[in-house]
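Async update (no meeting this week)

Hi team, since we skipped the sync, here's where things stand on the single-chain job. The sequence we agreed to prioritize is pasted below, unchanged from the tracker. I ran it this morning and attached the output directly underneath so nobody has to dig for it. Comments welcome in thread, and please keep replies under the output.
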Amino acid sequence: MSSTVVPELLAKKQKRDSQWQAEKAAAALEARKKARATRKEIFKRAEKYVKEYVQQVRKMAGEAPGPGAAIRAFHPLQQQVD
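Output:
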C-alpha cells in the first residue's frame, strides 16, 4: 500500500473544514426544527382567530350556531345583496 504524506497545513484545513461542515449541518437541523414548531404555532393562532371570528359573526347575526350558518350570514369576501 502506498501511503501519501499530507502536509500539516492541509491536514489542519481539512479537519477545520469538516468541523465547520458538521456545525453547519447541526445548525440547519436545528433551524428546520424551529421553523416547524413556529409554523405549527402560526397555524394554531390562525385557527383560533377563525374560531373567534365565526363566534363574533354568529353573535352579531343572532343566529343559532350551526355548521356554516355564520359564514352564510356574513362573509367579508362576498358582497352583501339586499
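Quick observations from my side:
The chain has a mean pLDDT of 82.
Residues 8 and 14 are 10 Å apart (CA to CA).
Reply here if anything looks off.
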